[in-house]
Design brief:
mainly beta, five-stranded mixed beta sheet, five-stranded parallel beta sheet
């Protein structure tokens, strides 16, 4: 593996055997990233880990230009940032479709019980996705750098955000309805870098994490009567704020406390 070189515009099928370790997979991803940084344009390629005995995959282990990932059948742990550098991934495969930890359907990765969406491939074709009715949680960076989704149905059923960066750098998604959240923290980097225009925030949210919002956010609808506390994050100054009837003044004072002049409307 250390002596491997890559050629421009060649599509590769990287099949790894039982001698490969999690560290090898991470090193291999780094090698691909380095080649791309140095100007090699690798064609769309597949990584096949089905013959490995690896059970845990490190962060940053899937590179750009990998469009298909075949996981080890016995995988038990995928680090939170496994897919952070995989903007070209179109499909995930798990041999047999599931194991005692994960489930893959239509190329999308869930936990075994299908209550958590672990990862939706960033370059998967299609502009609309409907979350299964069983899914109530979103894992870290579940829609990180998504290229194609304009609409996600069923977000209003999501109750918990398990970590940061859920929609970080999503390119086309326009509306996020988080009216069903029961968690109290809108996690850090949830929308940063995205093109989302409208967000609905559950009344359970009482805290914003760091760098939550994208600069182009046009409107945010708060269902709660008490403005959230902020920890290094506030809505952009140009964002229109909608609040429950009777609480306009409360939110205007909140805006003023943050030295901003957002327009506040009741609804």
């Amino acid at each position: 593996m250390s002596s491997m070189t890559f050629e421009n515009e060649v599509e590769y099928y990287f099949q790894m055997d039982s001698s490969v370790t999690a560290a090898d997979i991470r090193s291999f991803a780094t090698k691909i990233n380095t080649a791309i940084t140095n100007g090699i344009t690798i064609g769309n390629s597949t990584i096949d880990l089905s013959n490995t005995t690896v059970t845990s995959i490190d962060a940053f282990s899937v590179s750009p230009k990998i469009t298909k990932l075949i996981l080890p059948a016995g995988v038990q742990n995928l680090a939170g940032q496994t897919f952070q550098e995989s903007p070209d991934l179109e499909e995930i495969v798990l041999p047999g479709g599931s194991n005692n930890k994960y489930l893959v359907e239509d190329g999308i990765l869930y936990d075994k019980d299908k209550t958590t969406l672990v990862y939706y491939p960033a370059a998967k074709a299609g502009d609309t996705y409907t979350l299964p009715e069983t899914v109530t949680k979103l894992q870290m960076e579940a829609f990180q750098s998504n290229k194609n989704l304009v609409t996600i149905n069923g977000l209003n059923r999501i109750q918990n955000l398990l970590h940061d960066g859920i929609f970080n750098s999503a390119q086309k998604l326009e509306v996020v309805d988080f009216s069903g959240l029961t968690c109290t923290n809108l996690r850090g980097w949830t929308f940063v870098g995205s093109h989302i225009k409208k967000i609905i925030v559950s009344s359970s949210i009482n805290t914003f994490g760091s760098s939550c919002f994208n600069s182009g956010l046009e409107e945010i609808h708060f269902l709660g009567t008490t403005p959230p506390a902020t920890t290094g994050s506030f809505v952009p100054a140009s964002t229109i704020i909608y609040v429950p009837t009777g609480y306009k003044t409360v939110y205007e004072e909140w805006v003023a406390e943050h030295s901003q002049s957002n327009t506040v409307y009741e609804e």
